[in-house]
Amino acid sequence: MGKSKEISQDLRKQIVDLHRSGSSLGAISKCLKVPRSSVQTIVCKYKHHGTTQPSYCSGRRRVLSPRDERTLVRKVQINPRTTAKDLVKMLEETGTKVSISTVKRVLYRYNLKGCSARKKPLLQNRHKKSRLWFATAHRDKDRTYWRNVLWSDETKIELFGHNDHHYVWRKKGEACKPKNTIPTVKHGGGSIMLWGCFVAGGTGALHKIDSIMREENYVYILKQHLKTSVRKLKLGREWVFQMDNDPKHTSKVVAKWLKDNKVKVLEWPSQSPHLNPIEYLWVELKKRVRARRPTNLTQLHQLCQEEWAKIHPTYCGKVVEGYPKRLTQVKQFQSNATKY
């Protein structure tokens, strides 16, 4: 079937003039001997765009119709874990054959990009209720209150991390040369467990846990470092101690010691590590220590102590300063995972 003849600009102008004078689409079609569908297209274009100039499209026609594109978008919005290969297979079942690149381009046009899913704690209903209560109860606290919170937590630091990721410039066939590889050892080459604390004004103590952490060990750490860190950081009488709901932390022995020493504890929601700003300090510490490449566990501990002491109070203050925004996001996302 040959290509239909294009309607001239003069004829287009006549169609618009007749329409403006009150003639119907059918009457214009009979008068000018132009198909009614063409008349309707020209009139609609004039109404919406104010012009009758034809639109010229370059390139070949798209394989997927707007309806197909909406189907793809709807599919990934219902299940974000759907792969491009799955979508290609789905389209093939309907008789449309496309490449994976075509599917990706369609999704990109709708601002949908393939990203690694973030790992977040599993939240049950009781956890969500607890988080929502925490955010509601503390939403009116000003920044002065959060500056007087002594944040604490434990972390593990490996000598050779499993997640080291480096890019190298190499030629084809040189992937296995020693200079282009990252040496690995079983279990990360050993690791150390650390307990630390900080406030907006700077870092407190950093303690190495030598054995399995039990409630007696935790009480020992508190005896050794809690009051010392408070004095070092010059906290006033209104300071509050934060710790998570690990069974060791909430045991009767620990609760008795905290009560006897008149330590005010911030009630904490379970499964909420991202609400603790010390997580940012752990990331910063591990990055700095990794850059210095320790060769044994003794050196690893030494470098951790040095780099922990070097973290500037300005950085600590910046981390704590935006804390109210975290609580706002908890409410905004209905107690689900946030970007923090």
UniProtKB/TrEMBL annotation:
List each copy of the Sleeping Beauty transposase HTH domain by range. 1-53
Source organism superkingdom? Eukaryota
Tell me, what is an example of a GO biological process annotation in this record?
DNA transposition
Short name of one Pfam family: DDE_3
Q: Which InterPro entries match?
A: Homeodomain-like_sf, HTH_SB, RNaseH_sf, Tc1-like_DDE_dom, Transpos_IS630-like, Transposase_5, Transposase_Tc1-like, WH-like_DNA-bd_sf
From the UniProt record, which GO molecular function terms apply?
DNA binding
| Name of the protein in question | Paired domain-containing protein
